[in-house]
Amino acid sequence: MFGGHIETESRGAWVYTSEGRGFLNCGGYGVLLMGARHPTVVRYVSEQLHRHPVATRVFLEPQAALAADALVAVAPPGLERVHFAGSGAEAVECAIKMARTQDKRHLVATVDGYHGKTMGALSLTGRDVFRDPFGPLLPDVDHVAYGDATALEEVLARHPGECCVVVEPVQGEAGVVVPPDGYLTRVQELCRSHGAFFVLDEVQTGLGRLGAWWGADRERITPDALLVGKGLSGGIVPVSAVVATPAAFAVFDRDPYLHTSTFSGAPLAMAAAQGALAAIHEDGLVERARVLGDELLASLGEIARGHYGDGLREVRGRGLLLGFEFVRPGAAGDLLIELVEQGVIANHSLNSDHVLRLTPPAVLSRSETDFLYEAFDRACGRQASAYSLSSEGGDGHA
Ligand SMILES: Cc1ncc(COP(=O)(O)O)c(C=O)c1O
Does the beta carbon of 283 lie inside 6 Å of ligand 1? Predict the structure, then answer.
């Protein structure tokens, strides 16, 4: 896609092409907090692969229970029941169904929020360009401004006892939008007082990405259901999960066949999840994400501001979820292409044309961090000067 490279291999923070060139992977859509092929995950997965990758579902099989235990051990208190799936979107679908078992059928999500592209998840995703080709989507969905508790309250007051509210702790695909302090606490209070089912979508933010196990931890909240994905795969096998309160899970406990999928909870995937959680513990990745994130935010922010000046609207983030918002719409995409030239992979943002996102692994060494600074400096320098050249030609600098 970019520069005609063909990727054939990955290790740690690096992706290698067929020609043997290495790229520092600060993209990967947030999957690779532990880098690629972390030895602990590889060990868990390969042992399971050579022992028993898929279960009969006729007998008890321990891997799903072990993975669920490991996940519950780090989840916010009160979240004790787990349903495993493959993708983040599937976790969203499961949460929507869970809410419906409690008669919460009116969905409330946020403008520019992202929850995936299956039909239910897409109904929550807040960007028309992805939704319009596929309508009609689920009925009874409201999108409220993110970070605006009053807007949420107005919808909840119109539909007392009927709502399922789905929010991200930090909006990832919207371009790393960090809500005001206390927002999540207020969302939880409003959900409780208006009888709404509260789903916190931590598919992108969870498992240490924000420098805490969960975005929920920062405000010490416990939603009815918390969604996990991306890094739970250990970057190897697709795994996602809904971690819920016993009350939220009750109908599924009574009838486990109500919501099933052939590969959900397969032993191989469950080994990957256990390996990923073990790797996060062993390598202290949550704390490393916090410390490294603070450093990268400050240093990369300074580099970008130095080159773009007023063309850079804001640099923001939490932990290792970093966003660079440009005034000019194409600037984020141009910088992404230039970064590839300089040996760094970044992310665009699905629901914002203005924001370049970096989701680096927490395992970066000093020399890798220095490589990132130098490449970022060169890329920003080349792009920013290209803009000022084009503005001299009348094309308009950001
Ligand atoms: C917050 C959030 N929820 C859900 C999803 C969907 O996950 P998947 O792409 O695995 O279906 C994403 C993907 O980026 C996400 O960021």
Answer: no
